[in-house]
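Q: I have 323 residues here and want to know how they pack in 3D. Can you give me a structure?
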Amino acid sequence: MEEDKMRGMFRAVLCCLAVLIVAPAGAAEKLRVTKAVAFAWTFTPLDVGMQMGIFAKHGLEIEASAAAGDAKMQQALTADSTDVGIGSGPGMAFMVKGVPAKGVAAMYGVPKNMAVMVGYNSPARTVDDLKGLKLGVTTVGSLTDWIGKRINNLKGWHGSTGITTVPIGGMPPARAAIKTKQLDGYIGALEAGYALEEQKEWRVITGAAPFVDHFITHVFFVREETIAKRPEVVRAFLRGWMETIAFMKANKDKTVEITSKVVNIPPSVAARAYDEQMSNFSLDGTFDPKALAVLKQSFVDMGLLKEIPENNVMFTTQFVPVK
């Protein structure tokens, strides 16, 4: 009888242990995250972190998506169809215009990841040859739009005598427009230009970095409601991102393997993007004052805002530095 009781207790303990092993310690927090575009290598840490289980380690279940440019991503934030947006520094002008979100951390410095490209058979060979050309950009007010206008300003080109930027969206419509001669070129992700250069479809004229000394190329945006009600989830996401950056820096081969598939570029191009762009990711998300000054002036230069905005309208510093 005593032996039967012992067996019963033993079975009960085993059942409890099985439940503890199978049941999760706590349900993962779902977080909707939207990239401004699908084809930028700088946005691939999201995919690396998901595939390597880093965000899951921080208690997050990421629901990832991509928009057709910054303006579309800001619309998603406004419509509550995403919680977090990974977009451009110039996108912070949308906060001033009433988008119910805030920048929560800087993600990337000067735009080493951006380039100006033309059709492969274009007579344009140098920056000076871009004068008078029509170049596609993702959306009005985007980083790509600003780069075109920045070159105009530095070159002293005004109106139609300089570069004309044309909102075209992502890569598919841009490629079609250049093939049909509706556009002369495109301002976009450097690695996309390299990949199409290998296919003899486009040529990279210049990277964007020579035209910018200080800048915040990419920023994390979070809906104000999410900031107010789920601040720990925001912190978990930023910690997961920074841990992913550390993983990528220590694991080039695995990073190239994952990212080449995510943005559909040859591993050779992904390796080149890694070498040129990896060092420019922020390690703590802080907003550099010099970069902010250039960024805020860009809002006025592009006609997005009439005057330079206050910092607290655009972003919050409650989540940085990320530790």
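Q: Anything worth noting?
A: The CA atoms of residues 177 and 235 lie 41 Å apart. The chain has two domains: 29-108+217-288+307-314, 114-211.
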